[in-house]
Design brief:
This protein has about 325 residues and is an alpha/beta fold. It folds into 2 domains: about 70 residues, no CATH class; about 170 residues, 3-Layer(aba) Sandwich (Rossmann fold). About 30% of the residues lie in helices and about 20% in strands. The strands form 4 sheets. It has a 7-stranded mixed beta sheet with strand order 7-6-8-9-10-11-12. It has a 4-stranded antiparallel beta sheet with strand order 13-14-15-16, with no helix packed on it. The longest helix is centred in the middle third of the chain and has 15 residues.
């Protein structure tokens, strides 16, 4: 299944690999809206904003057409276990060529449970409004959505946060209590004059990932909203959060701690503990050992790591 905005990329892949025999389903941005809004949205996206490059894939089926054919047919239950693959989640490519990380249902369930226990202590099931301005193909946004959907939060997905006026318009519409983002996005919000009119009195939790938050951005956000940005660190291979500041952290300094059921240590090449402040290789292991199956697929991954070692990397990048 592919969004029409990216169908031209799939077309190129299929043309370079003629032996691939895929059943392709295409969808448009407005497909799940009601009829009038669906039509208007798809026309604007395609013909006004020109966000859909020309494409042609023989035999492709439109999503809504497929749903019409499938209505009334019986659906078989598919048994799933923690070891079944949920995603081939692609890394961001910040430390090298983007790679597909195998994430199981157990991976996702474990990290959702960890982050719910870590971040959601002051949140109320069914009462929160969560703003997600990041693409769901990034594992940070994906897992965040799963965490807050599990709590029954009203999720507002901002599809194009680069359109700052439209983004701020959405923020004005909802009394949001949770927001996630990256450093550059928070800075862009703070620099936008229109953001001064956004009511942030309901805000309880602000989370940042993907890159380090600049101190000046964190201080400006705290001054503007009264809420501290909680930073986290992780890897796509760990689905993704490994370490984060406590949800009630109020200072500007980093105070990351391993997520529940993880043990973190920094070691040199010979695996002995490294002195504080010295560079080394940080190892992350399941604690207790029984959680290993939940946190990584069995067998060695593409980096050649043992199942119980979730990741081993230098402070400034993944060890390949």
């Amino acid at each position: 299944m592919v969004l029409e905005n990216f169908a031209h990329t799939l077309q190129e892949v299929l043309e370079r690999n003629p032996t691939l025999n895929l059943a392709v389903i295409t969808t448009e941005v407005g497909d799940m809206f009601r009829v009038v809004k669906e039509l208007v949205t798809n026309v604007v996206v395609k013909y006004v904003k020109h966000m859909v490059p020309a494409w042609k894939i023989a035999g492709a089926t439109e999503l809504n057409a497929g749903l019409r054919v499938g209505r009334g047919q019986e659906v078989d239950d598919v048994p799933l276990s923690h070891d079944d693959v949920a995603f081939l989640q692609y890394t961001g490519g910040t430390t090298g060529v983007a790679k597909g990380a195998v994430l199981t249902h157990g991976n996702l369930v474990a990290n959702v449970q960890q982050m719910t226990a870590w971040m959601a202590r002051d949140l109320v099931d069914g009462k929160e409004v969560f703003v997600c301005p990041l693409p769901l193909y990034h594992v940070y946004a994906l897992t965040s959505c799963l965490v807050f959907m599990k709590m029954g939060a009203h999720t507002v997905l901002v599809t194009n946060p680069r359109d700052m006026k439209a983004y701020i318009h959405d923020l004005k519409k909802y009394p949001f209590t949770i927001i996630i983002g990256v450093n550059t996005l928070y800075r862009a919000l703070l620099d936008a004059p229109e953001f001064a009119a956004v009511d942030t009195r309901a805000l309880k939790l602000t989370s940042a990932g993907g890159m380090a938050v600049q101190r000046v951005v964190a201080e400006r956000w705290k001054q503007r909203t009264g809420v501290t940005i909680i930073e986290g660190y992780g890897l796509t291979e760990t689905s993704p959060v490994v370490m984060a500041q406590p949800a009630r952290h109020r200072g500007m300094d980093r105070n990351d701690r391993p997520a529940d059921s993880l043990h973190a240590g920094c070691h040199p090449r010979r695996r002995r503990p490294r002195a504080r402040g010295r560079r080394g290789r940080r190892d992350l292991r399941a604690r207790p050992a029984g959680h290993a199956a939940l946190l990584e697929p069995s067998g060695r991954n593409e980096q050649g790591l043992h199942p119980r070692r979730l990741a081993a990397h230098r402070r400034h990048g993944v060890r390949g």
